[in-house]
Design brief:
Length: about 375
C-alpha cells in the first residue's frame, strides 16, 4: 500500500467520489454534492484558501483506491488562538487499520513540516463545513450537510491514540400540529415588548439586503463555540452562492429590532437527503430535478442555522422564528424535524427544544492528538 498526493483533476475527482463508491450500497449513507466537494478544495473557488492551505491524499493498494484524507491548516485560527493545529478532513477508508494509519501519517507529516504540533478532526475549513465523526446512530440516514461513516472509523482512530476533543448531538423532533402556547407567548412578548419584526421575503432577489448582516450576527453568536473563526465576506459569498439556489423562502427568516437592524435569522430546509442519495451526489442528468421535487413535496425539515445577536438572546427572537416555522411546516405536511449537530455543552440551544421532547439519535466527535 502507498499514499499519493492529489495533484490532477482526475485525482481530485477520484478523491471526491471514493466514499460514494465505498458506501453506495449502505442505506444510511448520503453523499455530498460532487460539484461542491470539488470546489471546496479549489483555491480559485473557495476563498477560505486566502487564509488556509490544504492538501489531499489517496491511499492505494496496487491500483485500487482504499482510502482518502485531506489536511487543512487555518492560519488565521491558529494565529488568533496561538495554536499550531493541523486539521484532517474527508477521511474515508476500507476496514483496515493499516490504511487509516497511512492516511493519518500523511497529514501528520505534512503538518509537522509546517510546524504544527497537534492534529484534530474531522473538521473543515470553517464552522460551516462538514465536521464530526459519527460515533452513534449509524442506521439513520445522514443529513445533506453531515458526515456518515461506519463504526470502525472510531475504532481505528482511537487505536491510533486519538482522544475526544468535542462532541455534537443530533435530535429528532416530532412536528407539532399547533403552535404551543409557550411559543406563542414568547413571540408575542418579543413583538410587543421589544419591538422585534419578523421578515419573510417574497423573492430571492431581496436576500442580499439582509444576508450579510445576518452572517455578522452568526459570527458574533457562535464566536465562542468549538473550532469557530469568524467568516469573512468572500467566504460569506461562497456559502451564499451554494445555498441561494436551494433555499425555500417559506423557511427563511430575518428578525429586525426597532432600528431595522438584523438581530437574528433562521434557515430550515426540506430534507434533500433522499434526493441526493438517489443521484449519488450528481446534479446531472436528473439530480437537479430530484432536488427541486424535494423542495416542493417533503415531510422532514432540517434545521440548518438559527442565530441571535448575543445581547438580544433570551428575548423571544427564537420563538418568533419557531412560531412561524411550525405554521409553515404544517402547510406542507411536515411530520418531523432534525436539529443537525449541536455541541453537547451548548445548553442554550438545547434548552430551546426541550418543550418539543426531542430524541437524541446521533452523536459525532472531533478527535485530537499531539504530534
Amino acid at each position: 500500500m502507498y499514499i499519493k498526493k492529489v495533484e490532477t483533476k482526475k485525482e481530485a475527482k477520484l478523491f471526491t467520489e471514493f466514499p460514494n463508491t465505498l458506501f453506495k450500497s449502505h442505506p444510511a449513507y448520503v453523499p455530498a454534492l460532487t460539484l461542491d466537494e470539488l470546489h471546496v478544495f479549489d483555491p480559485a473557488k473557495n476563498p477560505a484558501h486566502s487564509y488556509c492551505e490544504s492538501v489531499r491524499f489517496l491511499a492505494y493498494d496496487g491500483k485500487k483506491i482504499v482510502g482518502r484524507i485531506a489536511g487543512i491548516i487555518n492560519h488565521q485560527y491558529n494565529k488568533e488562538f496561538q495554536t499550531k493545529i493541523v486539521r484532517f478532513s474527508r477521511i474515508d477508508m476500507i476496514d483496515d487499520i493499516e490504511v487509516t494509519k497511512l492516511l493519518i501519517e500523511a497529514v501528520t507529516n505534512w503538518g509537522k513540516e509546517k510546524g504544527m504540533v497537534k492534529i484534530i478532526g474531522p473538521i473543515g475549513f470553517t464552522d460551516m463545513d462538514r465536521m464530526g465523526l459519527l460515533i452513534e446512530g449509524f442506521d439513520y440516514l445522514n443529513m445533506f450537510i453531515t458526515i456518515w461513516n461506519p463504526p470502525y472509523y472510531q475504532t481505528h482512530l482511537e487505536s491510533l491514540g486519538f482522544k475526544k476533543d468535542a462532541d455534537w448531538i443530533e435530535s429528532v423532533i416530532l412536528w407539532p400540529k399547533v403552535v404551543p402556547e409557550k411559543i406563542k407567548r414568547g413571540a408575542h412578548i418579543a413583538r410587543s415588548r421589544f419591538g422585534y419584526e419578523l421578515i419573510k421575503l417574497k423573492s430571492k432577489r431581496h436576500i442580499d439586503k439582509y444576508v450579510y448582516d445576518a452572517f455578522d450576527v452568526y459570527n458574533r453568536a457562535f464566536n465562542e463555540l468549538y473550532g469557530f473563526y469568524p467568516i469573512s465576506k468572500p467566504v460569506m459569498d461562497y456559502y451564499i452562492r451554494q445555498v441561494k439556489s436551494l433555499v425555500k423562502l417559506d423557511f427563511l427568516w430575518f428578525v429586525l429590532d426597532k432600528d431595522k437592524q438584523v438581530i437574528g435569522f433562521g434557515i430550515m430546509m426540506p430534507s434533500l437527503a433522499e434526493a441526493n442519495k438517489k443521484s449519488n451526489g450528481k446534479l446531472l442528468p436528473f439530480g437537479w430535478l430530484r432536488l427541486l421535487h424535494s423542495l416542493k413535496k417533503f415531510h422532514t425539515i432540517d434545521f440548518y442555522f438559527i442565530a441571535v445577536e448575543p445581547k438580544h438572546q433570551g428575548r423571544g427572537v427564537l420563538t418568533m422564528i419557531i412560531e412561524d416555522g411550525i405554521i409553515q411546516g404544517n402547510k406542507y405536511g411536515v411530520v418531523r424535524a432534525l436539529t443537525g449537530p449541536e455541541l453537547e455543552d451548548n445548553v442554550k440551544i438545547q434548552a430551546q427544544w426541550k418543550d418539543f421532547n426531542p430524541t437524541n439519535y446521533k452523536k459525532r466527535r472531533c478527535y485530537q492528538k499531539q504530534i
